[in-house]
Structure formats: C-alpha cells, structure tokens
Amino acid sequence: MGAVWLLIGAGLIAAEMLTLTFYLLWLGVGALAASIVAFTVPDSLYAQLLTAAATAFLLTLLTKPLSRRLRQSRGYRDAIDDLVGKEGLIVEAVEPGKAGIVKVGGETWSAVSEERLAAGESVEIVRRGTAVLSVRKKGG
C-alpha cells in the first residue's frame, strides 16, 4: 500500500505544479506522509488515512494565513490577474449561462459570457474567477 500512496502523492504534486493552487500540494504531502506510515505499519489502513487527512488539514490550516498575508502584501501581483484585457480565441462555443472553452496564449480556460460566442471568434478577457474567465467579443 505504501507504493500506492507514493504514486498518489507524486501525482498530486505533479498536478499542483500545473495548477499552483497549494491545495493539491498539501494533499500530495499528506499522501506521502501516509506512505511512510504504510511502510512502517502496513496493516493499518486507518492510520494511513488518518495521517494523510491530518497532514493535509494541518498544512492547509497553517499556511492559509501566510498565503493571505502574501497576497495582501505591497507589490504582490497574481500572474493570473494579467489575463484581464488579453485576447483569446474561442475553442468551444460559449452560450449565455453555459460555459465554453477559450484559448489564451498557450493555455485553455473555461469561459462564460453574456452573449453567444462561436468557435474561432476573438474575445477579450474582462474578468477572471478562480478557474473561469468572463469574456466578451473583441471590439464589442
């Protein structure tokens, strides 16, 4: 079971490198901690699960104030905020009330709009949520 925890931890940490949310990182570290328990106490699945959950919870709890303080510090600018005002290309049609997909630079994002946007149309990013961009037709 220790190898499974190692694979889960490595996968979550790799996914964290793509998303930069810190939540997957702490879950990955929790899985790695569970792998240590699995190698030392292989028959106790409850101890492994408890270790994974407690580690992820404590890391989240302890680092939340630090990340909040960092984001509020002077001169801090989230790279994702730079998306606002950039141009994107609709990959999957966007309907009012139904998200589609927009490509901005080399990345694809979920996108919503108050107007219908067909695939291939150029759009401007007007706002960003945590994982969804609000877009409007370029020049519109």
The outline comes out as elongated
- Give the helix proportion (percent range): 40-55%
Q: Report the order of strands and helices.
A: HHHEEEEE
- Please provide the count of β strands: 5
* Regions with little confidence, pLDDT below 50 for 5+ residues: none
Strand content: 15-25%
Number of helices: 3
User: How big is the Rg?
Assistant: 20 Å
Largest sheet: 5 strands, mixed, barrel
Mean pLDDT: 89
Distance separating the two termini: 56 Å
The helix-and-strand class reads alpha+beta
| Order of strands, widest sheet | 1-2-3-5-4
Question: How would you explain this protein's 3D organization?
Answer:
46% of the residues lie in helices and 21% in strands. It is an alpha+beta fold and 140 residues long. The chain has a five-stranded mixed beta barrel with strand order 1-2-3-5-4. Helix 1 packs antiparallel against helix 2 and helix 2 (23-40) packs antiparallel against helix 3. The longest helix is centred in the middle third of the chain and has 28 residues, at 45-72.
Short description:
The chain is an alpha+beta fold. The protein is built from three helices and five strands.
